[in-house]
Design brief:
single chain, 93 residues, mainly beta, 5 strands, 13% helix, 39% strand
Length: 93
């Protein structure tokens, strides 16, 4: 599946709920939107996660967010195109 190719995978954790971002997601933009939402009474922040699924998370001033990155095996299905979702890691096995 990978031929030794790798990609950067970003994990975002919101109050313990973990999401892996799709490859086309702009992490700096997401960070800015989370920071702006945290200054409000509550705002939904949208993103696309692995599996090409759209997710909205309600951010408030008390939401705990952690962003981390890792190098993983390349997955050509991870395009961020919500019109072509896939189920996850085991599809390619």
């Amino acid at each position: 599946m990978t031929n030794g190719e790798t990609m950067i995978q970003t994990e975002v954790v919101f109050d313990g709920a973990r999401f892996l971002l799709a490859q086309d997601q702009d992490v700096d933009d997401l960070r800015r939107r989370i920071e702006a939402a945290a200054k409000t009474a509550g705002t939904f922040v949208d993103m696309v996660v692995v599996g090409n699924k759209a997710v909205s998370v309600l951010i408030t001033s008390s939401t705990q967010v952690t962003i981390s990155v890792a190098t993983v095996a390349y997955d050509p299905r991870d395009t961020g195109d919500v019109d072509f979702p896939y189920s996850g890691y085991l599809d390619a096995m």
